[in-house]
Amino acid sequence: MFNFLKTGQEFHRLAKSFTGIDALIKELSYNIANRTIAEDEVVQELYALIYFTRVGIWDRLDNNNWPLDKNIIIVPSISNKRISINLALKETHQKILNLSIQYNIEDDFEEIMEKGTMFKIIATKIPDNLKGAL
Question: pLDDT, tens digit, for every residue of 54-75?
Fold first, then answer.
């Protein structure tokens, strides 16, 4: 019974991670479009966003082995309908990858997602209170 509750909690955290990351993507895209943020700040925010995606979404998926096509999730910022985890994942991944390509950090994107050296560097720069919120 407790495992079921823990799984439910983790699934809820996954939905919150998708929603939060999508909100950050939209905010960053808005700031880029309105030129209210310097390019070096965009890159730093992208690094944090990629890190949050890796830890908040991918690690959670890896730890719980949920089938991506069978589990339905509600992420209102991505769709007003119920969608598969796989669709939410593809939407989120593609948005961040496109921004990474735009700012020529696609290699860093891959390295962070694979938990390479860049992941470790970024992890040291993320405040503990933000890490705990993931």
Answer: 999 999 999 988 888 777 787 8
Cα distance between residue 16 and residue 75, in whole Å? 8
Cα–Cα distance between 16 and 22 in angstroms, integer? 10
pLDDT at 69: 79
- The three-state (H, E, C) secondary structure of 14-68, written as one string: HHHHHHHHHHHHHHHHHHHHCCCCCHHHHHHHHHHHHHHHHHHHHHHHHHHCCCC
Joined tokens for residue 59? 């690690």
C-alpha–C-alpha distance, residues 93 and 78, integer Å:
12
119 sits in the region (left: phi over 0; alpha: psi -120 to 50; else beta) called: alpha
- According to DSSP, residue 69 is labeled T
Token couple for 19: 């929603």
